[in-house]
Write a structure and sequence with these properties.
Blueprint: E1 3-8, H1 18-30, E2 34-39, E3 57-60, E4 63-66, H2 68-78, H3 88-113, H4 115-120, H5 124-138, H6 142-146, H7 149-158, H8 161-166, H9 180-195, H10 207-218
Parallel strand pairs: 1-2
Antiparallel strand pairs: 1-3, 3-4
């Protein structure tokens, strides 16, 4: 039975959702084959007859599971080995903590700094929705928000210092092998690598090799970061 994953797409079949990247890494850690179903922003409402507002959505037989963390827990419950979480409830709690940092602190800073980049890579049907919703959220135009990027990039990189601190003496947050706690920040950084026109990691001697190790686990490819 083939697993299928609804995956956010832009123009030219670009895939760029941080949450979909998390789900893909979870599937890769489990060694599970899957097919992706590309879906634009304006097509999400059609999944499961309107049952979902966001992607990813995993289709596993007769079951549909939305939200990357819920997908990871579903995979852990149905296919226990290899594990996605460290043992006991503490492993899940630690992963939730990292998820909270990425979703609540890091991604809200990133989003306005590459909103215009994303808009330029969307299908035409998505552009009006994206511009209206994001400009309402940012309180200014996509272009004005992104113009602040160079000034705010040092602040953004400082937000990654806890991740860098945790990875100083280990190849993965999971230790010698990746866990879903790695997939969460990987998805966030992969988002910038897929669609942003800037290099978030800037050749960081700890984070850049970790990101490449995670990328190798997933088998995904990203464009080379811009020079400078």
């Amino acid at each position: 039975m083939t697993l299928r994953l609804y995956d956010l797409c832009g123009a030219g079949d670009l895939r760029f959702s941080p949450y979909c990247f998390r789900a893909k890494m979870a599937l890769a850690i489990k060694g599970l084959a899957y097919e992706t179903i590309p879906v634009p922003f304006t097509g999400i409402a059609e999944i499961g007859r309107g049952s979902f507002r966001t992607v990813p959505v995993l289709v596993d037989g007769e079951r549909r599971v939305g939200d990357s963390f819920a997908i990871a827990e579903h995979l852990e419950a149905t296919r226990p080995a290899p594990p996605l979480f460290a043992g006991g409830g503490a492993g899940r709690a630690a992963t939730r903590f990292v998820e909270g940092l990425m979703n609540g602190l890091v991604q809200p800073v990133i989003s306005p700094l590459m909103g215009a980049d994303i808009h330029a890579r969307l299908q035409e049907a998505d552009k009006a929705y994206f511009r209206q919703s994001r400009e309402y959220r940012f309180g200014r135009s996509l272009e004005a928000a992104q113009a602040e990027r160079e000034a705010r990039l040092p602040e953004l990189r400082r937000l990654l210092l806890p991740l860098r601190h945790a990875l100083r003496d280990r190849p993965f947050l999971g230790g010698d092998r990746p866990l879903f706690v790695d997939a969460v920040p990987f998805g966030t950084i992969a988002w910038t690598a897929a669609v942003g026109t800037f290099d978030l990691l800037g050749g960081d001697e700890v984070l850049a090799p970790w990101f490449e190790r995670c990328r190798a686990v997933t088998g995904l490819a990203f464009p080379a970061p811009p020079p400078g």
